[in-house]
Amino acid sequence: MSGGVSGAAVAFAEPEEQATPLPADTESAPTAAAWYLIFVLTLTYTASFVDRQVLNLLVVPLKADFGLSDTRLSLLQGVAFTGAYILFSPLFGRLADTGSRKRILIGGSILWSLGTGLCGLARGYWQLFFARAAVGGAEASVTPAAWSIIADSFPTRMIPRAFSIFLMGPYIGGGLALIFGGLLLEAAQGWDLSAVPYLGALRPWQVVFLVAGIPGVLIALMMLRIREPVRKLAPRDSAQMPFAQVWRTFTDRRDFYGNFYAGMASLVIVLYAFPAWMPAMLMRRFGASAATVGVQYGVAVLVTGSIGVLAGPMVADWLRRRGHHDALMRVPFFAALALIPISLALAFAPSYEFAMVVATLASFTYSLPQALASSGLQMATPNRMRGISSSVYVFVASVMGLGAAPTIVALLTDHVFADERSVGLSLSVTCAVAAGVSAFFVGRALKGYRRVLALQ
After folding, report:
1. pTM attached to this predicted model
2. What is the distance between the alpha carbons of residues 103 and 125, in angstroms, rounded to a whole number?
3. How far is CA 177 from CA 62, 86, 174, 282, in A?
4. Are 163 and 316 in contact (CB under 8 A)?
5. Which of 31, 110, 221, 282 has the lowest CB atom count within 10 Å?
6. Average of pLDDT values for 56-65?
7. What confidence score (pLDDT) does residue 11 get?
8. For residues 433-453, b (16+ Cβ closer than 10 Å) or e, as one string?
9. Alpha-carbon distance 77 to 123, whole Å?
């Protein structure tokens, strides 16, 4: 992308950063090392979402083994993971601004893979709870380190495309977690591991967790070949931006940052609520098996989510060529509006097939703006505060999406509708309201975004 989009990095840069010119090859084609970087980072993000979301397909066996309500299950999906994720996000954000992003990614990948393995060894609810917390704390390393290193590895015009590839990870990972998690869960029920030391007493759901933790360790080895890029638009003779300057940047542009964070955090509720409870809705209301739901809904999430996140930059570029230089924020606004009727339609689903169509439309729509929002935030932020701006985004999105979304749906199901078969209605109401709130705040962020673009 070019024009208003490619100039956004300079428009948002601090005065002293503007005095430091970009490298001469900034607008050249990405190097082979940059494409290897995005390939490995996409695998990393994919593996993290496999580990994060495989639990969503294990709702039924976990309820049976531990005697859990939907609300207690939602705490495993949300609070256990999110509490640690939120706690460590600012730390990793600051480390990404001041230290080696490559080392952060390698260490985080190994640690969350070990945490997933510990989930498989859990013998009780609280052991599983704290193992999920370990996964969440380690996965907090990914976003700030990856976003920052991507923005420094690609020419400005290619950053949205690079982000769209990287952000396929959640949809590929979420899809694979459902597809292979369901198939593995069904297959493991017929395995006889009694003669295998330590594994003989494991339940099928525990086997799924153990297998899910393996890819992250292998990907960490691939990261050893990643090159740490030179930071672009970094202040001269400065290892880090003073916190006072970071705070001043946030407050001076609060009409963009505040509304952006609130709007995208609300949209993330939809992104996390659907994968968290759609499998349970299909199994409870329509009697589908875990394997059937895992394969069919998993393929839908993988395909439509990936198409949506790749299509986002194309849609934004189409809008930009027609004079809409605020396209990076305009697409999220219209996506949020579209999710309102899509979410409401789920409440009236008369059949399994209709519900799958709704879920497929939702997957495409909530994935469409993700790369654009990430790109806009990175290009709108000085280099030495990209990690902290990303971690703030992670913080608010985690509180609302990872933390609140599964629990809001569960509380409605348990205490308002008081019928686990009504989980589809709870999901519909939660997502429709969240989409409406998102449209309101992203619409306000558009004004702030235009104001900064006008400074060019």
Report:
1. 0.67
2. 33
3. 16, 23, 5, 16
4. no
5. 221
6. 81
7. 30
8. bbbebbbbbbbbbbebbeebb
9. 18
